[in-house]
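Hi there. Long-time user, first ticket. I'm pasting a complex I've been working with (about 923 residues overall). I'd like to know whether the download I got is complete or cut off, because the file seemed smaller than I expected. Thanks.
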Amino acid sequence: MSLAPTTPVEGASGDALLVATAVSKRFGGVRAVEEVSITVRRGEIASVIGPNGAGKTSLLNMISGFYRPDTGSIVFDGHDISRSRPAEIAALGVARTFQNIALFSGMTVLDNIMLGRHVRMKSGILASFVYWGLAQREEVAHRARAEELIDFLALQDLRKQPTSALAYGLRKRVELARALALDPTLLLLDEPMGGMNQEEKEDMARYIIDVNEQWGTTIILIEHDMAVVMDISDRVAVLDRGRKIAEGTPAEVQRDPAVIDAYLGAGDRGAAEHKGRAA
Amino acid sequence: MSVDVTLPQLLRRNAERTPERAALREKDLGIWQPYSWRRYWREVHDFALGLAAAGFGRGDKLSVIGENRPRLYFAQLAAMSLGGIAVPIYQDAIATELAYVLDHAETSVVVAEDQEQVDKILSLSERLPHLRLVVYDDPRGLRNYEDQRLRSWEAMQAAGSAFGAAHPGYVESAVAAGDPDDLTLFSYTSGTTSRPKGVMLTHANLLSPAQAMAASERIVPADEHLAYLPMAWVGNSLISLALHLWVGFTINFPEKPETLQRDLRELGPTIALAPPRYWENVLTGIMVRAADSGPLKRRVFDFFRRVADRAAACDAAGRPRPLGLRLQRALGEVLVYGPLRDQLGLRRARLVYTGGAPLGADIFRFFRAIGVNLKQVYGATELSGLCAVQPDGQVDPETVGRMLDGMELKIDDTGEVLVRSGGVFKGYYKQPEATQEALSAEGWLKTGDAGYVDGHGQLVIVDRARDVGKLAGGAALAPQYLENKLKFSPFIGEAVVFGDARPFVAAIVAIDAATVGNWAERRNMAYTSFQDLSARSEVRELIREEIRKCNLGVAEPIRIRRFLVLNKEFDADDDEITRTRKIRRRFVAEKYAAIVEAFYREAAAVEVSAEITYEDGRKAMLNSTLAIVDVEPAEQAIGEPAYA
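Hi, the file is complete. Here it is re-exported in full:
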């Protein structure tokens, strides 16, 4: 069992990488996330699913430090990050992509990826400016890593293209490359396949699995395409209206009546079962 | 010239003589990474040990499948080093073709580039009783595979180093024991008429044209070549194995197929070889971009293109270029030709060849006119690649060149071209009857081409010998000649011409999707698919104009009278065209017999049902009614609509 039981475990057991304990977030009167607890273990692909407005992205934003939880705690790799700023969390090894692609559109693919290495760069402004000695060696080493990612994501022919000129699916891939440039321990993917066609989705799913297998990167995935989620996730947590209503293996979650209700309304269970079989 | 050395022996020789020179260069992680001759030999040696450890030995066959990659060469030379035979395979072959070749060749080891190829091989493994090992280069995605026969490249090397420790000098003595007359490569021809045939070649076979070519074309170690051709094409083995090992120049590998243009330009190879299809595509690309550019640029381009044409016409006629033309040509070199060659990656290209099939004379002239030293070569898989090359300074678009040193030529009474040379193959594997048909007792190869020798001692090929026909009126018709003329139009992708024993000439045309699509967009014509686009009356009208233009340059009796725009492209997966893009005329004539009948029945339309094959091998039927168009409506037909 990799997503923890509903009662939170104190002090993160064994190989838990991320433990969120009863976190809540409100915006005015709206309860975006309420008392949600999840545990993600090292090396797994965990998915968070749920209807629109269920609080998935808010949860991700709390993990990456864009929001601070009102109550509850988040512990990543032994560090309490509940009150940390995004840059601090990134430096600990948490990278993310965004639902609406957030690339620097005037910059090339390569430059965007190099930017992702920024938190890993150590030379100061002056040294970088003179571009000498350590700063130069460092730049070369980072470029080598960027090239590995370009190779990994098959972006060789696009290196020098401005990202604004790229098709949507390719921009998503560049965003993934930039997130990976951080050498993350935990990768948060917010709808990486949104707006993609079937072929692009299959490619992206392949890349996610490869990242997980090749570098052992732990992944938290938010995605609407159930076929993909059920196919590649080790565990799935289901949110509805800010609360966690189910969790388990893909097969368990698909059979869960609460999940079917949340997705399709109680009256439409037949169709949901049909969909479950197809997935 | 006799050959007294094998390919692996040449590799060892190079590793000893010039250990530090770059033998190969691969663009990896954005950088051109060299492999020295010493390392080349080391890699081959280590992989050979791995093969030996797995029981691979003399006469065993190893297949490689994938893009042009250094490791696939290491694997081929490793097999050759042990006295084995390399059987390169077209990487885009569909499953049934692949199964046929692997089974027929009795391949025991396959070296595959990546997961895609591994999946293909494993899915066929029940039909491949001889298959013992599948080695992969790129491990990505293969982590959880459990097939017992699957090995990583590294695992092979590790097994090899244990074997090597127990058997010191094993590979070295195997290489030394090699005989130039040992079989070393089976090149499966893509066969325009039948199942692929395994052409058996020895070291001496492959090295014979390589040596003759190196001498006559003065190829030197400082030359550079970019290897991107299909590994299974004999032209690739000739240049990137035999010629490369013999001369010792540098072979470069592009980063991936999509970056080819950029890699070409970065590198500026001095030797280039490509089939006609490539040059056709490049020209089409230039035309499209010229048409899309601004009015000033387009005018400059058009002007200097005409200048180039006039200069080429002068040269062809043997007249000196007038002074004004020379000046314009010089200005054009600065403004258009030089930059264009640079864009095409031909800036440093000294020797540029086209071969494998005929190239339209107009396309040929275009490249020569912009200063590319494009030359025809002539050959066949059964000749280990080639036997004739156009010498520098004597390039005539109608010929395919002069026989290389040591290659004999004879035209028999039926007009068929016969060749005898050191490159003539040892027979088709397990097909003695076919071998007897192709080879005479005195060692002459029947090329199957009809041709003659012109006044300057250069060979002219008219067509495939069996395709040359006669119209009912008696005029001789070489379909390929007309097809190549048609294909000079940027809008025509492929064409098949009919007319043997018929009253007039007719053609089935497949449009060039990119150019016609672009043309349609510029006219704000909406279309959904290739099929839809092909069926447009505007497109038929466009093609009719193109055929009219083509007819102007052709003798009256063999002008094209009727044509049809096909609703699909000719596709190798449908067996209509070979993997090297040669039309399989007979097959097409049979498949589209209904269309051919309709041409001569004077029908205005025809019902066509064609089977199409998807990349995964699934098949589907495509049914439609296609219009047949008269190029010049007959007198009495004026006033009546000839087609809908």
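A couple of notes from our side: The two ends of chain B are 64 Å apart (CA to CA). Chain B touches chain A at residues 28-31, 140-141, 143, 255-256, 258-259, 262 (CB under 8 Å).
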